[in-house]
Amino acid sequence: MRPKLVVDYVVYLIVRLFICTVQATPLSVCAQVSKCLAWLASDILKIRGNLVHSNLKNAFPEITVEDRKKLARRSWYHLCLMVCEIAHAPRKLHDTNWHKHIQMKDIHIQIEQALGRRPVVVLLGHFGNFEVMGYCTGMLGFPTYTVARPLDNPFLHKYLEEFRSSTGQIILPKQGSAPYIEEVLNQNGTLALLCDQNAGAKGCWVEFLNRPASYHKAISVFSMTSGAPLVFLYMRRTGGPMQFEFGVEGIYDPAECDEPKGVKEVTQWYNEMLERVVRRDPDQYWWVHNRWKDDRPAKKREKEKKRLEAARVAAAA
């Protein structure tokens, strides 16, 4: 066996042992441990501290430094508790008791779309517990096709894929997925995509939380070419562990538009949906994510900055 595979397998065993320990621990205890881990990661070790505080400073310039520190700590708590909830989901959530853990909000919109005779593109961000949302969507009888990048560790990748597909999610590889996506849309299937992944310098740039961010153009193109409605979903924690609100933030249906929107307009729409949910519960967003990475030439960045400043002035007038 190659040395890398040995290391990967050892890491896999450690992760499985950790998950077994979490599953054997009551969720109430997991929540208390998560608070301690959040304090350790945010205040003591300062993991990705500069990035987190820079992101929060740009997104919420009106709050104090002390409030940003508290928000950073709460976001780490959310991440730690999210891992615990994912580990407990197969044992805690079933088709007979899900209503004790999840409140539905405007979800009938998604059901109507899913039962229609057109394809549907479901959008979500690195917000709330999106992994549990995917698990529950399949459990409730609405399987989705999800595009995901394979993990570098093949053993962990297989384990995570088994969790994601256990209730009906079908995972498509990120590389070479175009023909599969086309087939899903042609057969009126439901495609689920994380919409806030950096698309690099050639992506579609729109303002997100006061800064330009790059989005994949393909999401808008899928809707424009297939006529599929875009449905923005979220699952936010409403109280203690494993207590969620599962809702529809908005829907864009190209069939109901008098004039078809372009890529940038559609991208702007779902970006605004994401910003709305993040501003309501900022502690449940992945601030450790380098969402605003900008690899464009300095000239283009400066031009975009001036354009956004002009747009803000015009909106305020």
From TrEMBL:
CDD domains: LPLAT_LABLAT-like. Keywords: Acyltransferase, Cell inner membrane, Cell membrane, Membrane, Transferase. InterPro entries: LipA_acyltrans (IPR004960). The lineage of its organism: Bacteria, Pseudomonadati, Planctomycetota, Planctomycetia, Pirellulales. The gene is htrB. This is Lipid A biosynthesis lauroyl acyltransferase. GO terms for molecular function: acyltransferase activity. Its EC number is 2.3.1.-. It comes from Bremerella volcania. GO terms for biological process: glycolipid biosynthetic process.
